[in-house]
Design a protein that fits this description.
The complex is a heterodimer of chains A (347) and B (393). Chain A is an all-alpha fold and 347 residues long. Helix content of chain A is 74%, strand content 2%. Chain A is built from 15 helices and four strands. In chain A, strands 1-4 form a two-stranded antiparallel sheet. Chain A has a two-stranded antiparallel sheet with strand order 2-3. In chain A, a hairpin with a 2-residue loop joins strand 2 and strand 3. Helix content of chain B is 44%, strand content 19%. The chains are: A mainly alpha (347), B alpha/beta (393). Chain A: Keywords: Cell membrane, Membrane, Transmembrane, Transmembrane helix. Chain A: This is Branched-chain amino acid ABC transporter permease.
Chain lengths: 347, 393
């Protein structure tokens, strides 16, 4: 049991790293992240990179939905805008990766503000449909604006270059992904401690009271859309450099729903939840697939039933988690932590 | 505690067994695959996978590659590029295969630079894309048949040789979906038509699952082409178009390429399927006069006794398996070790390879695609040959 952990000021209570224990664990985590690429093979590193992309996008969506309470079904489209922006800027103008990265975020944020505009008048399901329209419209543009987006063939992107160092393997790419993820996560974590972040939460909890408190609803809703899309754009930029190709097929509606599932499974409104959700949604299908590989070669007929079963099991896992812990993986994590923190005095 | 120990013991035993399994299999030629067994492409993916697995199993029955067995390892990708690339990387690290089969055109395009620079594996796939068959850009990648462009070339060659009215330039319309798959061969087809003296009178474009095709049909009626070639569909909206054209009294002959030459489509067309034509790079399951089909039927009778039919996607898998084994055998015959780079060098050297009537005499000449196919016509619910093998190169 941890004792003597008292807060004597509001600042201490609001601190990101509240105790020495947290700092130690965090240092261990960073050390593990630093050692990991030297131990893991290309497959695990690629999955780590992919998870990193998902985390950035999920954190962004969680700011919009979990914190500000504005539902969006168009998140994949914003990831797509980021991806296309960096693909076009690299291939046409030859801009370097580090310049493309913020520009992708900004361009996604720009469109995010436009798409967020209806949120002035709409809430809940209605807003959901409005953002769905954005998803469909951007999807259409990706496919049909061939001179710019390359149409259905998409754009092939060369590996990124940082100060002359070519990031052509997942090993090198890892060292770009991880700092960006850390940056994105810390930015999101700190956002909730600022005036803007608190305004988001006030709007989510009760928009009328928020307005009474002097929060300009429209302005802050647009901030939420812009921030969330910025994260999505950055994730898109990372994704396009990781996959080295962008086509409209990468940003369908079900990708938006996947991001939504990430934050719901992980825990709405929690940064840690977004991370857990992104890891869960990326790694569990892979784990199921690896489990299936053990059965390979046993019986063709059996396999033909087992393959579709992966999707069913994955779906059941999501439903199961939500039934037993509606607040998501972040809440389960908190309970595990509390168990150790309070042990042996649980009650 | 005891149960924990038992579990741990069992796990350890399992690990040892698996380890022993892979140790035993060290002396094989490893071929990996990322197959779209679930997801949007599953209708074909599961057959392709079975075809490839069966083809390699049959090759092993025949003694493998001069005594060396071929080992086939696959994973499901759900037709998702991110997962496919992940599976590819995982399998490359785990098995270090010399040949690989991928789920889509997109996967080939995404991995091509890394295949050239890092992985050095010969790569076949579900794709018939022209871009992938470009030898200069993708020396490791081959297409298991003619590319869509070449399939159009074969059909146009057939059309040029069989004009509807003697002495008059045959006319043709292209009817394609608004996808990469639909658009891929069109620019090449236009050029080819010009070269062969076939006039392209109309180009109709629809969304992939289009329901309402009235405006395209009216346009088709206005131009009344002798032939109309579909590209980029699987079934809909083809039945609607053929029926609609019949109602308008058009005498147009409708044609398809690989994916629109399935018996699934012929069944949907019913009586309208009579006279429907198209190009196929392989023989069909029921062409029992073809020696290789006899082998395939016999293999299935022995290993899958309850199978009554195998679609053309199965044949694609089977043929890819044949190519893999052929390349390995060529390496062996030349006394070269069977490695990715050596196998890659064999691709352009495949010349007039007798596939026992299955896919003609195959050569990978100017591109890494076979450039050969046969025109078939629907008769009594089956496709029968309307031409001999037509070669483009």
């Amino acid at each position: 049991m941890r004792i003597g952990d008292f807060k004597q000021s509001y600042a201490a209570d609001e601190a990101v790293f509240r105790s020495g224990t947290v700092r130690v664990w965090l240092a261990l985590l960073f050390a593990a992240l630093a050692v990991f690429p030297f131990l893991a093979g290309p497959y695990l590193l690629y999955m780590a990179d992919l998870t990193g992309v998902a985390i950035v996008a999920a954190v962004g969506l969680n700011i919009l939905i979990g914190a500000a309470g504005q539902i969006s079904l168009g998140h994949a489209a914003f990831v797509g805008i980021g991806a296309y922006t960096s693909a076009i800027l690299t291939t046409r103008l030859g801009l370097p990766f580090l310049v493309c990265l913020p520009l992708s975020g900004l361009s996604a944020a720009f469109f995010g503000v436009i798409v967020g505009a209806p949120s002035m008048r709409m809430k809940g399901l209605y807003l959901c449909i409005a953002t769905l329209a954005a998803q469909v419209i951007f999807d259409f543009i990706f496919v049909h604006w061939t001179p710019v987006t390359g149409g259905i063939r998409g754009i092939n992107v060369p590996p990124p270059d940082i100060f002359g160092l070519k990031l052509d393997t997942e090993f090198k790419f890892y060292f770009v992904t991880v700092p960006i993820v850390i940056l994105a996560v810390s930015a999101a974590r700190n956002l909730f401690r600022t005036r803007v972040g608190r305004a988001f939460i006030a709007i989510r909890d009760r928009d009328i009271s928020a307005e009474l408190m002097g929060i300009n609803l429209f302005q802050y809703k647009l901030y939420a859309f812009a921030t969330s899309s910025f994260f999505a754009g950055v994730a898109g930029c990372l994704q396009v450099y990781l996959l080295k190709i962008v086509t409209p097929e990468h940003f369908p509606l079900h990708e938006s729903i996947r991001y939504l599932a990430m934050i719901i499974v992980g825990g709405l409104g929690s940064v840690l939840g977004s991370i857990f959700g992104a890891i869960f949604m990326t790694m569990v299908p892979e784990a199921l697939q690896s489990g299936l590989a053990l059965f390979q070669g046993l019986d063709d007929k059996l396999m033909s039933y087992l393959f579709p079963l992966q999707t069913v099991v994955f779906g059941l896992l999501i439903v199961g988690f939500l039934v037993f812990e509606p607040h998501g993986l972040a809440e389960i994590w908190r309970r595990i932590k509390d168990y150790f923190r309070l042990w042996p005095f649980e009650h | 505690m005891k149960s924990l120990r038992v579990t741990l013991g069992l796990l350890l035993a399992l690990c040892l067994l698996l380890g022993a399994g892979s140790a035993l299999a060290a002396d094989t030629i490893k071929i990996t695959a990322q197959q779209p067994i679930t997801g949007r492409f599953a209708f074909a993916g599961k057959h392709i996978n079975q075809g490839l697995a069966d083809s390699l199993a049959w090759a092993n029955e025949q003694g493998g590659v001069d005594g060396i067995k071929v080992e086939y390892i696959y994973e499901d990708t759900g037709y998702d590029l991110k997962r496919a690339v992940a599976a590819f990387k995982k399998m490359m690290a785990k098995y270090s295969p010399v040949m690989d089969y991928g789920e889509s055109t997109g996967q080939g395009k995404a991995l091509s630079p890394e295949i050239n620079s890092r992985y050095h594996v010969v790569y076949g796939s579900t794709s018939f894309s022209q871009e992938l068959a470009d030898r200069a850009k993708n020396p490791y990648i081959f297409v298991s048949g003619p590319t869509y462009a070449q399939q159009f070339g074969i059909l146009l060659k057939y059309i040029a040789a069989n004009p509807k009215t003697k002495g008059k330039k045959p006319t043709v319309a292209f009817f394609h979906s608004d996808t990469e798959f639909g658009r891929d061969p069109i620019p090449f087809a236009r050029e080819m038509a010009k070269k062969l003296g076939v006039e392209v009178v109309a180009e109709e474009v629809t969304a992939v699952g289009a329901v309402d095709v009235t405006s395209q049909l009216l346009d088709l009626k206005r131009h009344n082409p002798d032939y109309c070639i579909f590209q980029g569909y699987v079934v809909p909206p083809i039945p609607a178009i053929i029926r609609g054209a019949k109602d308008f009294g058009l005498k147009t002959t409708f044609m398809g390429t690989f994916w629109t030459m399935s018996n699934m489509l012929l069944d949907k067309l019913g009586a309208d399927g009579e006279g429907y034509m198209g190009v196929m790079p392989y023989a069909y399951w029921y062409h029992t006069e073809v020696p290789m089909i006899k082998i395939i039927q016999d293999f299935n009778k022995r290993h899958h006794p309850d199978v009554a039919y195998r679609p053309n996607s199965y044949m694609q898998g089977w043929f890819t398996g044949m190519v893999f084994v052929k390349l390995a055998k060529m390496c062996k015959a030349k006394g070269l070790p069977i490695t990715g780079p050596n196998l890659k060098d064999m691709i352009p050297q495949v010349k007039d390879w007798d596939t026992q009537g299955f896919a003609g005499m195959v050569s990978f000449k100017s591109s890494n695609a076979t450039a050969v196919g046969k025109v078939y016509v629907g008769k009594g619910g089956k496709f029968v040959p309307a031409s001999d093998w037509i070669y483009l190169d």
